[in-house]
Amino acid sequence: MNDNSLVFWFSTLLIANYSILLNGDVYSMGISWTCSILNDFKVLEKFIEFVEKSQSSDYDNITLYFAKLYYSLDLIDDIYCLGMGTQKSINQNTLIQFLHANIRFFVKEDESIKSGMALFKNAPLLMHMINVRDQYIYEGKYSKPIPIQQQTSDDQFAAHFMTLVSEKYDLINYLLEINHFIVHDSNKHHDSDELYETLMDYNLKLIRLVKKLSSSIMNFANFIGTSTTGSAAGVAATTATTSSPTSPSLKPALVNPLLNISIGQLFKLIKLIKLIIDSLTTSKQSSTDLENRLTKINNDLSISFNLLNLNLVNLQLGTKSSLIIKKKVGDYKFNFNKPTNITTTEQSLNSYIQEFTNTILPFIQQENRHGWY
User: Where are the domains of the chain?
Assistant: First the structure.
């Protein structure tokens, strides 16, 4: 088979897998099959041989083009795994690690494809989150804090995505710290008032983290809204937030391989934060300021939910992705009304610990099995 035929064949396979990913279909077999074909033609072996013999990049070289296709397929596999909560189809062996460490040979800085460049650079972050998921499945728990390094990007979508991921895991790590206190240290506090005050001290930082994440959710939802075709959601978004006005003219469709799982993740994080602030709102509150902050966060969540819900109509999501997300939203049964307060300290304490242990933590943990949608 000549080089032109291979270029056409391999490119077609990759485009097919990309289309399946955008549509949200459950079809890991396509990734596995394409990977097997690339392996049969020794794409990675030839890439390593090229790198060992050459110190300069020739972006038109067919060996480097095939290496880029393999790298792109690995990214598709990463995104699919995060979305669906499955294992990777592509084995992360030494050859794959070499490919990731030498992307400079087949990827050049190109301002015209910022989103693609940002996605290539985000590959280590995606792989790290998959490793976190696999480790949880193996151990059945989070045994240590989850390190996520804050990253920056010139691409707006990537910047919002990375901020969301970083702040999400900041919140999860702190929730795990609170859980450690409840499980291991709460028995040392024989007085319920003392235990209650200690938990409320924890919750001061918790509220700051929740507020920070809720703001990032609204910023991301606003960005998505102002980027949709027709800008119907974008016009609503600019009136709902303090962001700078955006032209209501027609815009190109927002197409990004991370879009589907980002929408699903935004809805999921809104639900998580809602569970957290509801558990605090039903507590016996002595601070009007605290209550006001919880009300503000709840209002922000309501705005973000409405923006995202409107965007589901305007965004050109894949048929399957749209159905999955809409079903999840229905299952979450969002209600942004303020719950009823509990009056006594003991009732408040028992309710908070029960809600934290039986609802909030399981909600976080189930993502490892069910995925980001």
Answer: 3-108, 155-370
